[in-house]
Description:
This protein is mainly alpha-helical. 52% of the residues lie in helices and 7% in strands. It has a domain at 1-87: Zinc/RING finger domain, C3HC4 (zinc finger) (Herpes Virus-1). Helix 2 packs across helix 5. It is elongated and about 130 Å long. Keywords: Metal-binding, Zinc, Zinc-finger. Residues 13-53 form the RING-type domain. Residues 101-142 form the B box-type domain. One of its GO terms (molecular function) is zinc ion binding.
Amino acid sequence: MENTSGLSDLALCAVCCEDIKIPKMLNCGHILCLEPCLKELMKMQTFVCPICKREIPLPTSGLADDFPTNFALQSLVQCGAISKRISHIPPVSNERRTVENRSARCSLHENIVTHFCETCLEALCHGCVESSHDGNHDIVKHSEALQKGINDLQPILEEVCKLGVQLKDLSKAVQEAKGRYEAEANEIKNTIGEAKAMVYDLVEKKSADLCTEVDVEKLLTLRKK
């Protein structure tokens, strides 16, 4: 199965080399697909990471499902699947075109795309449906697949917008904290400068007093002689 560009390495399980649907993270940091790999590996007497060969402690429940899910990778894989749904949408230009010219076309038969294979994540024409996609494939109308892709993408976009707002608020809080720290640092510097000047003045005054006392002592000594 062809993988989405830019996600091919991340989206593949290192054991079965198939697309990861539910990525589970081991204690060593490596990621495996929940099914079939992780569940099959846990049936062995000693569970060892197939990548780094480290022995992996099992969850207290003993269930593969309770290994932590890498939601960041799962979101990327979902985005990749969605992009496959909508990647065959033709670009829109300012030129006037007929509906037929603007329609996506099958790369094999050059016919207008009418269906979409949910199993292979491929856009199909009538010829593709009849020739290469049998009854075991989940085939829907192209318009339905496109709408489903848009619907699936909507909550992800909303989440990205929320993260953007949170990032903006965090950036503002960091800038405010930075301003407070800089103000406090300047205040401390000023206090240190004032204390330094005060100590310097005291030292100068004490030095002058000592010099005066020494001069007086010398004068008295000379008079006694």
